[in-house]
Amino acid sequence: MSNRVRISQDKADLVQNLVISPDNPQGVFSTYADLMAFAAALGKRYNFSVTLGAIAKEPSPISIEVFNSRGYESLFKLLGITSTHNLNIISSYEENQEEARIKIFEEYANGGLDRLQQQLKGAVDYSERILLILTQEKECLSNGENKNFDLRKFIK
Description:
By secondary structure, this protein is mainly alpha-helical. It is built from six helices and two strands; from the N terminus they run βααβαααα. This is DNA phosphorothioation-associated protein 4.
């Protein structure tokens, strides 16, 4: 296994439609890494992780360095710790621990993408629907549910 985050083939079209590009100016996220981090946080929020099936060739797997440069290293570690209840998973000296963190991240991201795919079905404007999801989360926060969880930071 390499130190790259893979995307499930059945989510490839959704991922490409959600990221801003010259061919897709109406995308919601600036980078694939931002979208995958949002999806992983969403998957964790609902405790929904899904094993990857066939791996997409496009978009190609994303280097872990891209995530680290965007400040998502903590997310990988937090997902690892909360999923395994083992602090050794954050060890930077053992390559197999990084692979385990990436696998956990991929599965939560895949679960989050699955949830997004369901919630965005039939939507014309993805940004409007995602804003609605975030607004609902904010209302849950203001009602005292899980005060430390805020998905809004992932939106451009």
